[in-house]
Each structure stands twice: as structure tokens, then as C-alpha cells.
Amino acid sequence: MANKFVQFNNVSFRYDEEAPYALKNVSFSVFEGEWLAIVGHNGSGKSTLAKLMNGLLFPEEGDVYINHLKLSEELVWDIRDQVGMVFQNPDNQFVGTTVQDDVAFGLENHGIPRDEMVERVHEALRHVNMVDFLDQEPHHLSGGQKQRVAIASVLALRPKIIILDEATSMLDPRGRNEVLEVVRELKNKENLTIISITHDLDEAAKADRIIVMNKGQVYREGLPEDIFMMDDELTKLGLDIPFTTKLVKSLRENGYDIPKDILQEEKLVDYIWKLKQNI
Amino acid sequence: MEIKTKHLEYVYQKNSPFEKRALYNINITIPENSYTAIIGHTGSGKSTLLQHFNGLLQPTSGEIQIGDLVIGSEKKKKGLKSIRKKVGIVFQFPEHQLFEETVEKDICFGPMNFGLSEEEAKIRAKKALKQVGLNEEFLQKSPFDLSGGQMRRIAIAGVLAMKPEVLVLDEPTAGLDPRGRTEIMDMFYSLYKQHGISIVLVTHSMEDASKYADHIIVMHKGTVYKYGTPREIFDSPEELIKLGLDVPESIRFQLKLEEKIGAQIGKQPSISINELTDNILSYLKRGDIQ
Amino acid sequence: MMEKMIFGRYIPVESVIHRMDPRAKLIIVFLFIFVVFLANNPMTYGLLGVFTFIALLLSNIKISFIIKGLRFLFWLILFTFLLHIFFTKEGELLVSWGFIKIYEGGLIQGIYISLRFFFLILFTSLLTLTTTPIEITDGLESLLNPLKKLKFPVHELALMLSIALRFIPTLMDETEKIMKAQQARGVDFSEGSLTTRAKAIIPLLIPLFINAFKRADELATAMEARGYRGGEGRTKYRLLKWDLRDTLALLILIALSVTLILLRN
């Protein structure tokens, strides 16, 4: 099995002692180089998970390991070096006055020499197709563009893992596609581990593996096709199922025995076409 | 109440070096008790247009008629307040407008601004809270102790409590999870069906537009590109795709399948998953391959 | 209204003055405040005028544009001018019209003070017209750097300033958005008595503050996640480059001061 890059061992967490547990006894692993989607309705504990992965929060019980380092006050900065986070609100994570200043911010924090910074800023912006916007100010950018800059800011620090904490939920469809396209390309080109925390099932369908969170606990873990076969169970958890799964279901109800695990539209198109040839 | 525009034009910062035309030649009618969806890219003028519906913006030329009131480009129009009572707007991320100590006070804020007594406003607050699916326990809570989804509902209740005849919604479900989205959209739909309210929905979701609306306005670069029923709008999906807009998933799938087959299935694009299923079934059952 | 005011606004055109190091510009403007007071006769005022005028020409910004933009400040100049004319009673009596008496000394004094004021305003607005706010911040940070030894939080101050600059447009948009949302709920910001209007501000200010705090909180989290741990050990991406032209500009100002000292009475 591949290297376990993130490991949660029986992690519990509360925001304060009177509050109910936001996470209760959560255990799971993320493997190096995979794209994992963590889904769940708002309040299911998925964003708390993200904050525990780079020491913005610490577990009340249990342990979190990032690249075999145990999360603790002493190691928190070493861990943050390996974990890049892209947050939900495009505006509230844009620190610099221009695109290039924003990408440089993290590098400045790490004391990188200026010549290297210039190189890394350009490289990171090339990866997200924003190199033409070097001197643009944030209020002249669209939400999707700002999120791409946020990804570049994270990339410039060369993390091993990027966490997208509902990074597309405030974007319009165009912005969402731009961001997901960039993430997919990155994952293919670089050996990056990606964790996307989302309630967008189309986004989750693009992942290698999905964890479904409910009431602060891991409800189910599996391949996208396994997860989406849960069907009505997902709807009961306040989630949705992707369009292709809905269509397969509808065709099955009408007497066509189409395999439940078809997720990609292209595959379903092919399947229907072949079905017709064989009639 | 009907809303009608005639050659409406809006220019930001007119007669300054920063002048920018946001809308031009807008001629639309939003009939009484109708459900209209406005679709188009960010920056196509949707948000500017909807601010005309309750006089937050006045046309820089042309006019808009809201009920009996005609607003043109004349200096500061009187009587806008009465219009704002009849046309409620739920802006994007409306939870950002909450400010009172309790949910009850915040919901009462609108109605009391329009002259209702505290007692009457409180009755309305209770009712509005129920409409958005929250129980009375919330009345005395601070809106800032609630979850994002609950805050959104409170803000919507604050507009509903004004009892508007027209409800304008600017992407009311942005950022909500799937369950919250469905619940809120269904709630608006029942307001339209049961209480005779007109709904104007600005949305990026073609699914919502085709599922709920009886009219769709397609905005492009500051003017109306197309106006019609969902059937009419989605009958030529290529046009929308050309503008870079999405089409409902069922149509997108049908186009892919037709491309593979090299022929059309069904008479027209399927605007729902049921239609698509029927079209696929009839294709599979048909003997000949074209 | 904000659009018409140019005081404190950056105009992005190409010019020698634009390309100058913000530190040089800051030093020169600072020194200029004192240099202006060296002038005390027609010759020296003339020289100051020529100097200011040349600086304006070099900045490549339309003079008519500057004059238009600074119109509201001219009322202030006019006011000081009149003040001096009416209240300085020196020299020959020039005009006597009822209780208004204008003396030669007053007239000259009025002209001189107004010119001084005029040159100062032109020169300082030249700084903001040709330098982006962030460049000014960088320049200030660099110039104040020695104060770090005295435990003065130079880096923190500069960071605060730059974040404030970055968020001004965002908060302006937000103000407008909340204002419209409350107007849609029946608030009237422009009508009614002073107290009603003051009350109308509350539904605007509270959400604005709450959202600003939320933003600040999220921004702090994002900064921390990107490894921000204070100014210690940080490098700087924005580069200030002191060129020959900056040294030259400074020398010219010194030459001007020396000439002024020599020419003044």
C-alpha cells in the first residue's frame, strides 16, 4: 500500500467543553498522491477535519500524523510547511495588494531569498494560468481567479499536500470549473496529494476516493462509484447524487440492467450506444 | 403586480471618466404571479437589473413601471418606499445584513420600517420563521449564534415578513449544502404556488431555472439575449453553449449521446431527467438505426 | 463625489517621477516642507515656482487635471489669502473702503503665504499622484527601519497599512451592498431628521463591523496557514531600487535650498 500521508487515529474534538463533539472518534488515512474528497452536509464536521490537518486546531483526544510527524505545538510549523490550505472565501485569504505580492507572502514568511522568490512566484502563477495578472489588484479579479491565486500562493511553498476547504463553494459555475481544472492538472503533473472538502458531488466524483462525514463521524469510506451507489442513503444525509448516477437509476427502473457503478457520462453514453447495437 | 421595462438603460458613473454602461435596451415584462429566472454570466448585468425592480437604482434612460409607479431617469423619484414594501429583494449572502440582538427583532425590522406596529410585526415574524422552516425557539436567540444556513433563513424571513407581492432572489442558495438548497428552493416555489407571489430568481443553476421557472430571461453583455419559457430557451441549447453558459445536465447528456450516435433522439432537448429517460428508452426500442 | 477628488489618488502613467524610488520622493517631499519656508522675496518665490512647475511637467500628468482635482483646496488658499489681506496692517495703505483697509504689507504677505501653501499642496499631491499607496508604505517601512532598534514595530505597522490598503475597495463594495440590502428593508439613509438618519446608520455599521471582524479572523488564519510568524526572519519581495536619478533629484533639492539661502534677504 502507498505511503500513509495523513493519519487520524481516534480523533475527537470539541470547540469548547460545553459544546457537543464536532468530531467523535474519527480514524482514516490519506495516501500519498491520491485525491480524496471529504463530503458531508454543513455541520457534519468536515471543515473541522481540515483545521486539524495543519494545526489550526489540535485534537482533544487521539492523534493526527502528517507525513509521520505527530501534530503537536512543537512541530506545528514543520507540518504547516507540508500542508497547503485553500479556504472558502476568495477575498479573506488574499493578503497582498497585487497578485504577485500575494503569492510572495508565504515565501517572505519562510525567508526565501528574493531571486528565488521571483522564480517561484512566476512558476506558481504559470501553473494556475494567472501569470498575465502579476500586477492586478484583487478587486479587479473574479472569484475563480482569486481562488487560483490562492492555489498559486500555496503551490509556491511547495507543499506535499493541498487541502481545498470548500474552496469552490462561493464561486459561479465558470469559476468552479476553472479551479477544478487547475487542481486536476496539478495532480496529474506534480506528485501532490489533494484533499477536497466539499458538498459538491460533482467535485467529489472527480476524486479517487471519498469519505462521507455525518454527525462528526466517518459514515462511509470508498471509491466514488461505491459511495454513489448509496443513493437514497446519501440524500438522507443531506447530500445529493451526481447526474449520471441519477440517470442510471432512472433507466434501471425502466427495465434496463445498466451497471450501477458507471460514473462518467462518457462511459454511460458508450454503454447506451453498445446496448443499442446489441438489440 | 406587474413589472415592465421600456428601453431601460443604466450607466454607472454617468458623465465621468469612469462611465460604464451596465444595461441597455431592456424591454421585459414580469407578469403578476409568475416565476421568472434570470440567467447569464457574472457581469452580464443581472444584479444591476434586479436593483431596478424596487427602485434601488433608477434607469439613466428609458423607464421601468412597477405596479402603478413609473420610474424614469428624472431626479430622485418620490414614493420609492412604498415600492420597496411591495418588491422584496433577497440579496446574495443575505445573512450579511443581520444586525439585531435577537432573531425576532431582526425579522421585525423591515415590517416596522414600513409602518407596522410592534405587535403586528411580531406576529409576522413568527409566521415568517415558520415559512423558512425554523421553529419559535429561534425568536429570542441571537442571529450571530446560529449556523450559516440558519442565518440565511433568518435573513430570508426578514424579507418575507414584509409580505412583498414580488420576491426578487439573487442566488439565494449560494454556498448552501444540497439539502439546504432544495428546502429553500421548494419553499420559494410554494410561496409562488400557494400565496400568489411573483418570484424573480437570479441563478447560475440551469437545473433550478428549468425546474421552477415559467419564464427565463437570458442576459448577455448588458442586454436581454433571449426571453421565453424554459422549453423555448433550451430548445436551442447550442446558443447558450456559444455564450459560454451551462445547459441543464439532461440536455448536456443528450447532446453527448446524439453526437455518439450521429442522430437525434427524441423530438426536442430533454429539460428533465424523466424526459431524457423517455427519449433514451424510445431510442433503444426503435428498430432502425439511422 | 469621491471620483472627482484627486488628492491622494494615484495616476498610472509613465514618467521619471513615477519611476523614482519612493524613499527619495518621501525624503524630498519632507525636506520641501522646510525648503518652502526659505523663500521670502520675489526672486526666491519665483525659483520655487519654477522648481515645482518643472517637477509637475516631468510627472507627465496633465496640469489642468491636477488644477481641477485640487479645486476644493483653492478655497482654503483663498481663505488664507483674504485673512492676511484684512488682518496684516503693515506698509502703505492701498485701499480703504469702509471698514475694509488693505495695506501693502498685507497684500504681499497674503500672496507669499498663498504661494507657499499652493506649492506645498502641489508638491505633496505630486507624491501621491505618482506613487502607489503600497510603494509609499514600502518606502516608509524602509526609511523607518532604523527605529526597529528602539523596538518600534516598523514591520507590523507596514503590514497593517498594506492590508488596510488592500481591503479598502472590498469594504467599500461591502458598505454599498449592505446599504442597499437595508434600503430594500425600508431604511432611508437620505431623508428624515438628523436623529433618524443617525439611527439609520446602525443597521449599516453593525453588519459592517461584524463582517470586518470575520474577515480579519479568516485572514489571520490564512496568514498563519501560510507560515506567518511575525516579522522575524522574513525576506522582502517588493524591491526598492535607489538609482542615480534619485541621488540626482536629492542633489537638485539641496542645490535649490542653497540657492534659496543665498538669494533670500
From TrEMBL, chain A:
Transmembrane segments: none annotated. Its main location: membrane. Residues 6-240 form the ABC transporter domain. It comes from Pallidibacillus pasinlerensis. Belongs to the ABC transporter superfamily. This is Energy-coupling factor ABC transporter ATP-binding protein. Coiled coil: none annotated. CDD domains: ABC_cobalt_CbiO_domain1 (cd03225). Keywords: ATP-binding, Cell membrane, Membrane, Nucleotide-binding, Translocase, Transport. Gene3D superfamilies: P-loop containing nucleotide triphosphate hydrolases. It is a peripheral membrane protein. The keyword Translocase applies. It comes from the Bacteria. GO terms for molecular function: ATP binding. It is found in: Cell membrane.
TrEMBL record, chain B:
SMART domains: AAA. SUPFAM superfamilies: P-loop containing nucleoside triphosphate hydrolases. Pfam families: ABC_tran (PF00005). CDD domains: ABC_cobalt_CbiO_domain1 (cd03225). It is an enzyme of class 7 (translocase). It is found in: Cell membrane. It is a peripheral membrane protein. Keywords: ATP-binding, Cell membrane, Membrane, Nucleotide-binding, Translocase, Transport. GO terms for molecular function: ATP binding. Residues 3-246 form the ABC transporter domain. The keyword Cytoplasm does not apply. It comes from the Bacteria. Its EC number is 7.-.-.-. Forms a stable energy-coupling factor (ECF) transporter complex composed of 2 membrane-embedded substrate-binding proteins (S component), 2 ATP-binding proteins (A component) and 2 transmembrane proteins (T component). Belongs to the ABC transporter superfamily. Energy-coupling factor EcfA family. ATP-binding (A) component of a common energy-coupling factor (ECF) ABC-transporter complex. This is Energy-coupling factor transporter ATP-binding protein EcfA2.
TrEMBL record, chain C:
CDD domains: EcfT. It is a multi-pass membrane protein. InterPro entries: ABC/ECF_trnsptr_transmembrane, EcfT. Keywords: Cell membrane, Membrane, Transmembrane, Transmembrane helix, Transport. Its main location: membrane. The chain crosses the membrane at residues 45-63, 70-87, 107-129, 247-263. It is found in: Cell membrane. It comes from the Bacteria. It holds the Pfam family CbiQ. Forms a stable energy-coupling factor (ECF) transporter complex composed of 2 membrane-embedded substrate-binding proteins (S component), 2 ATP-binding proteins (A component) and 2 transmembrane proteins (T component). Belongs to the energy-coupling factor EcfT family. This is Energy-coupling factor transporter transmembrane protein EcfT. It comes from Pallidibacillus pasinlerensis. The gene is ecfT.
